[in-house]
Amino acid sequence: MKGVILAAGTSSRLRPLTNDKPKCLLPIGGEAILGRTLDNLSAAGIEEIVIVTGYLAPLVRRYAAEKFPELRLTFIHNDVYAATNNIYSLWLAKEEVFRSGMLLLDSDIIFDGKILEALLDSGHADCLAVKTNIILGGEEIKVTVDGRGRILEIGKDVPSSQAIGESIGIEKFGPAGLELLFAVIDRKIVIEKNVNEFYEAAFQEVIDRGGDIYGVDVGKYKAIEIDTVEDIRTAEADILPYLPPISAAKANR
């Protein structure tokens, strides 16, 4: 199984911090977001990692290659990152992961590495991390599930009153699930030229076609998506004190 990190966006909401540095390289508690993500993947035994770059791509490549020389890194460049959404970046990674399965991660999450363990140990081939016990609004990618934990609906437009929680941007797919997923994404990108959706729209279509994607409750673990300066403050005050230092995961490699 390979890790896939989508790191192409411009992160305009964090300007001027991202004027000359991509969001994934912003230091949170003294460590770049990307470094924490790569460290968690390595600690989980994932050493083949695909990073899809876009905005300020050379900085991302240099950082990852210099800081994590022991990992087998593949870089794919989204040269139309300013005009596309994350579904297109994921599509670019298809040939690298199609037969291996993947752990998919957005590049702007500070999270407890135990979330990766929860997905890997879930017993489900295709699943995603759901943060429960939080207040939901209009911006979260919300999910509903059936009695077996299978996701029924996923998206920002899911009513908060019906959702069990938020999909935090960390997912696992096996080879069979990827075949279904990329069949949908191929049609959206190649035929419909629809490059501006979130990849969750493809998840929903897989579900609507009968595919099983399960929600894994990670409510007891710390995680936050970094979109604003306030998110950075929250991460440093309320998330990092409960996470092991990045060196601890390195020591266990």
Low-confidence stretches: 248-253
DSSP summary, beta strand count = 13
Number of domains: 1
Q: How would you describe the shape? A: globular
Which percent range fits the helix content?
Answer: 25-40%
The span between the termini is 17 Å
The major pleated sheet works out as:
9 strands, mixed
Average residue pLDDT = 94
CATH topology: Spore Coat Polysaccharide Biosynthesis Protein SpsA, Chain A
- Tally of helical segments: 9
Describe the fold and architecture.
Residues 248-253 have low confidence and may be disordered. The chain has 253 residues and is of the alpha/beta class. It is globular, with a radius of gyration of 17 Å. It has helices at residues 33-43, 57-67, 86-92, 94-97, 114-120, 175-191, 200-208, 229-239, 246-251, and strands at 2-7, 27-28, 31-32, 48-53, 72-77, 102-106, 109-111, 127-132, 142-145, 151-155, 165-173, 214-217, 223-225. The strands form three sheets. Strands 1, 4, 5, 6, 8, 9, 10, 11 and 12 form a nine-stranded mixed sheet that branches. Strands 2-3 form a two-stranded antiparallel sheet.
What's this, in brief?
By secondary structure, the protein is an alpha/beta fold. Helix content is 33%, strand content 24%.
Map the helices and strands.
Layout: E1 2-7, E2 27-28, E3 31-32, H1 33-43, E4 48-53, H2 57-67, E5 72-77, H3 86-92, H4 94-97, E6 102-106, E7 109-111, H5 114-120, E8 127-132, E9 142-145, E10 151-155, E11 165-173, H6 175-191, H7 200-208, E12 214-217, E13 223-225, H8 229-239, H9 246-251
Parallel strand pairs: 1-4, 1-6, 4-5, 8-12
Antiparallel strand pairs: 2-3, 6-11, 7-13, 8-11, 9-10, 9-11
Helix pairs in contact: 6-7
